[in-house]
């Protein structure tokens, strides 16, 4: 068991050293933008980084302390990692590395390292960010039993000095790659050769004065390959990172303002909730609120369409008590979904209304009582959904007490808690994934700006 743990810690330490190496930071826009700050270990828990290897933060922190103390330092509480200042690559160093590099995308499907090198042998080195290497070789993240450390050579693979038996030659490129040259002159010659074959070069370089002897190479679809100088790629990825950071900040402000305005939600107050039955099955919460507000101010109507029962939360316990006593003394019915209350004074009146509805009458009226229910009652407009032939019964209400009241307030608390959890782990997680996307492949921004 200890041997397995030691192997896991060793692999974690090796990958962390690779993540914070100059070769990877040159291509990993996410880590490079946070080179001067601590990065939470949770960032490394994605499948394209440490994946399941980082399931236990304690193991990752221990591996970082013991296996990569020269490049990575760990926070005091073991929850974040940062680049060691003594070995941190400088901007001057990174800029010098970018001068002789190009970014290629839209490579033909199935292009391998060997295929790319065979097309132009003068390429000095081929590069991929570590996140892409892991994504290509291990779909669910690196594992101790299956991860081949030879794949790390693709951080900076030198074809001219590599062994012919190296497994890196057969790795398929993920549609994009970075290449570097010994001299800027060699890069210009290579650009001229590709440009003559119709490549979609994103930034025109004066290369007509150069000639190349590599025109014998054929059968590679260079007319579909898109090229970008590394400095331009770096500038655009920084713009993308800045844009995502601004969106994240805006979302933080928006969610904070919403949380502040609805932080407390509905607060428990005894005796303010009543349950009702007997309403029209096609009525709406808006109509029911108008109906009950004729008696007392209402805070919320808890009603589901096609149901004849529900709950009403009044603003005060006196309002709920007033509604209970009124509906206990009077017979109020809903003759249609839009009816906000019809007062029934006799069984004969109720029977006549029921007969009109059964016969499909399109219009009816109710008697006006001294309290004005007839004034607020709606006509029997038939919109195609009101003639449901529902048996008219008086609306009955009851104030919730004891166990029923506690269960109702508990359900409100659960709904509010679920809503907050969704806002916290839903919207923020989506934006975090978008923010980290350039470290996997920085292609969407380039396509948008070039087409």
Kindly describe this structure.
This protein has helices at 2-19, 22-25, 29-33, 57-67, 91-98, 113-119, 130-137, 184-195, 230-261, 285-293, 317-329, 347-358, 373-376, 402-436, 444-450, and strands spanning 39-40, 72-74, 80-83, 101-105, 125-127, 176-180, 200-201, 226-229, 273-277, 298-303, 309-314, 331-333, 342-344, 396-399. The chain has three domains: 2-91, Orthogonal Bundle (Arc Repressor Mutant, subunit A), CATH 1.10.10.10; 92-230, RRM (RNA recognition motif) domain (Alpha-Beta Plaits, 2-Layer Sandwich); 273-400, 2-Layer Sandwich (Alpha-Beta Plaits). By secondary structure, the protein is α+β, with helices and mostly antiparallel strands. It has 15 helices and 14 strands. The chain is elongated, with a radius of gyration of 35 Å. One of its GO terms (molecular function) is RNA binding. It comes from Rhizoclosmatium globosum.
List the helices and strands and how they pair.
Layout: H1 2-19, H2 22-25, H3 29-33, E1 39-40, H4 57-67, E2 72-74, E3 80-83, H5 91-98, E4 101-105, H6 113-119, E5 125-127, H7 130-137, E6 176-180, H8 184-195, E7 200-201, E8 226-229, H9 230-261, E9 273-277, H10 285-293, E10 298-303, E11 309-314, H11 317-329, E12 331-333, E13 342-344, H12 347-358, H13 373-376, E14 396-399, H14 402-436, H15 444-450
Parallel strand pairs: 7-8
Antiparallel strand pairs: 1-3, 2-3, 4-6, 4-8, 5-6, 9-11, 9-14, 10-11, 12-13
Helix pairs in contact: 1-4, 9-14
Shape assignment: elongated
CATH class of the largest domain: Alpha Beta
Across the major sheet, the strand order is: 5-6-4-8-7
Q: Low-confidence parts lasting 5 or more residues at pLDDT below 50?
A: 199-219, 361-387, 434-451
Tell me the total number of β-strands.
14
CATH architectural name of the largest domain:
2-Layer Sandwich
Order of helices and strands: HHHEHEEHEHEHEHEEHEHEEHEEHHEHH
Distance between the termini: 55 Å
The CATH topology name of the largest domain reads: Alpha-Beta Plaits
Average pLDDT number: 74
Profile the largest sheet: 5 strands, mixed
Radius of gyration: 35 Å
Q: Number of helical runs?
A: 15
Broad structural category: alpha+beta
Give the tally of structural domains: 3
Share of residues in helices? 40-55%
CATH homology superfamily name of the largest domain: RRM (RNA recognition motif) domain
Domain XRRM: 267-451
Keywords: RNA-binding
Pfam family, one: RRM_3
Protein name: XRRM domain-containing protein
